[in-house]
Amino acid sequence: MSKEKIKITADTIIADILKMNPNAAPILMSKGMHCLGCSISSGETLGQAAGVHGIDLDELVKELNK
Questions:
Q1: Which residues 6+ apart lie within 8 Å of 53 measured at CB?
Q2: CB neighbours of 61 closer than 8 A, spacing ≥ 6?
Q3: CB neighbours (10 Å) of residue 20?
Q4: What is the pLDDT of residues 18-50, one digit of tens each?
């Protein structure tokens, strides 16, 4: 049985990204997303956060899915 890797998208919630891959925290923090444990991260999508922080969403998604 093959395991299909879950892909991170613009619609993935920040808190879910951290649950899927704790190694994502340093990547997000290096982009200026320092409030990973705050209540907003449990309802904010990666796309929303990238927009607020002025981050290239496509590049961030690629980096997180590596």
A1: 31, 32, 33
A2: 8, 9, 10, 46
A3: 15
A4: 998 888 999 999 998 887 877 777 889 999 999
DSSP characters over 5-56: PPPP-TTSBHHHHHHH-TTHHHHHHHTT---TTSGGGGT-BHHHHHHHHT--
**Contact indicator for 33, 49 with CB cutoff of 8 Å:** yes
- Kindly list the domain boundaries of the chain, sorted by start residue: 14-64
The answer to whether the beta carbons of residues 46 and 61 sit under 8 Å apart is yes
> 46 near 14, Cβ under 8 Å?
yes
